[in-house]
Amino acid sequence: MITQTPQITRDLSRVDGLLKVRGEARYTDDITLPDMLYGAVLRSPYPHARIVSINTEEASNLPGVHVVLTGQNISYGLFGRVVRDIPVLAKEKALFVGDRVAAVAAISREVAEAAIALIDVEYEPLPPVFDAREALTPDAPLVHEAAWAYRGAVTQESDHGNLQSRVTLQNGDDVAEALKRSKHVFTETFTTPARHQGYLEPHSCIARVDGDEIEIWAPNKAPYRLRQQLADWLAIETRQIRIHPVFIGGDFGGKGSPMEIPLTIALAKATECPVKLRMSYAEDLMAGDPRHSSSVTVSLGLDENGHFTALDVDAVMNGGAYAGFKPMPDVNLIGIPDAGSAYNIASIRVQSTIAYTNTVPRGHARAPGSVQVYFPVESVIDMAARKLGIDPLFIREQNMLHDGDTSPLGDHYVEIRSQETLRRAKEMLAQVPLRPLPKEGEWVRGTGYAFYQRPTHGGVTEIGLEPTASGDLVVHVPFPDQGGGQFTLGRNILGRLLALPNEYITVVQDETSVFKMDTGCGGSRVTVTVSEAFHRAGVQLLELLQTEFDLPRNYSVEALRTALASFNRARDGSWLRVSHNANDIEHVTSYNITIARVRVDKGTGQIVVEDIIGAYDVANIINPTSHLLQLEGGVIFGFGEAVLEDLVIEEGRVTRAGLGEYKLPSQEDIPHVHIGVVEGGRGIGAENVKAVGELSNVPVPAAIANAIADAVGVRMCDLPITAEKLYFSLREKGDA
Predict the structure, then answer these.
(1) Low-confidence stretches of the chain (pLDDT beneath 70)
(2) Span 17-25+457-581: which CATH code?
(3) Start and end of every Aldehyde oxidase/xanthine dehydrogenase a/b hammerhead domain (predicted)?
(4) CA distances to 58, 494, 591 from 588, in Å
(5) Which of 307, 301, 314, 296 is nearest to 185 (CA)?
(6) How far is Cα 569 from Cα 548, in angstroms, rounded to an integer?
(7) pTM of the model
(8) By three-state DSSP, how is residue 704 classified?
(9) Exposed end of the chain (fewer CB within 10 Å): N or C?
(10) CB neighbours of 389 closer than 8 A, spacing ≥ 6?
(11) Would you say 708 and 714 are in contact if contact means Cβ atoms under 8 Å apart?
(12) 396-423 per-residue burial string, b: 16 or more CB within 10 A, e: under 16
């Protein structure tokens, strides 16, 4: 039995808080290396065009220019996370507006951009295809000549040439037959747009090449996976690549791809100098890796009592010009199985099809795939309830999963706390007062609901504990803190286990030569993975100090620091290393119920989201402040997706290529957010935790859409839901 000092007051403030507030946090763009050059990229103005010729003579002769690269003088192969279909620079054809055609490295960014303007490219425009469903028709132009032949491709030569992937999940009886047997069937098609992740730091990279050794500074949230991708691309050993830690200025799913890193390496190799390449925000919006836009048709069957009998979901996603930004082995989106997953449904089929188009390549955004299928399913449930005269909350309650139930796709969870979560949601709804409606205008109010459940995923990590000669503890980690508070979480766990005040604990991210492997951030897995690693490390360290370094069973902080200093001297600087594989974990899920209250002016279509109420099954909370911010931030993320954010791609071109046009939620926009947590229950590991990073954003668009339907009787099937769209829908309905 291990004992320690009585509970001490814990400081739960963020490890990185002061550095960021003081402007001392170092991001990629803050780093300057000796003899560093600056890169710029020439991008295609056409969605689909043959590159006839490129004249770089004038650009190459500009004073200060060190190199001008085109696809013709790059010998490197294609890169990608799974599918390797992305060229460093377009060689024969440009496949979307924003595709890389040429690049420059010069003594300053200004000189590099001036050189880019001097490059003369002759294009031969080709027929493009922009819509995912149209791309899969027999006569559609091919984006790639032989997409099935790319390394990592999951399609066959017999598939349509514009197919990136197709995944079909089903369980129970044949869905078509089950729908035929159903008393009621409701079918509708919904669309969601491409949206940017909304991080404030655009993609950037610094590359330095010294012989066979490559060093990278980049805000990538999975450095060990990035190292492997780059090594595969260059056909070298991973030990030849070192990725240095930098602060990450926001992620939300968008900082896992290689993006401009291969091009930066190519420029550094060509010049034999370090090169920094930073995308402008306009470039990031037009040529980053936004969320897949979608067209989703849902058919829901019900019996005479309103119980769900069958669900068919046909989702067609726009994958853009390249598939290489998707990390899933099946080149699919991880959230596709979420369709209808909160309910008992006897027969289900969920099909996801992703198509190549001549538009910006798509990647991951918070809960990839989940929003695209959950907004349609929850909307059809609401539509069915209203047409059948059933209360929308009651129809969900009578169909929701209960503890011991199997999910529609056959997953069995160790616990489903739906009843407790619903009880908490109802309590909160009763406590949030209704505000008076404005006197001017034709204002009406509505309430909408959405039920959701999200499984918890794991990963692999390793940490190192390094006691110092002064008795402090340095914690070495392989993963970044992309804003989720992972460093703070680790410090809090170790501080509590050791009863060591936070001022004696420092958490640092090491470059990739220090550890073997880490899954990285993403998929809401980090807390689940690293909390157990930190817990085990703390327990092992305490046992070691007590058995080998004379730390008494009941000890003071001073005695603990003395033992840590003894450990430092005896081990001569070596660490206590603890690795943890959380891939094989219990099947744990979190239930969530989201309620939205809106008011709508029927005369103008103006929508005001007044309140969003969320109840969440969360198991144990390690840091209450960070936990609350994750849930609140997710709600606001979902709110932006519901009523504001749309890249607007017209004829293949992103038209909102600036934050003045691409509207992110501001303080003036956001509604009142009410968060309720249901603690306890069965989580993962000794810390008994569940994931929350992508739990609160997914159901918000559906809850808001359902509240609008409750207010004005109009079903909005296209995100984002704007005043203009609602205005015209109301007039089509006859409410002018």
Answers:
(1) 1-12, 735-736
(2) 3.30.365.10
(3) 22-127
(4) 61, 24, 10
(5) 301
(6) 13
(7) 0.96
(8) helix
(9) N
(10) none
(11) yes
(12) bbebbbeeeeebbbeeebebbbbebbbe
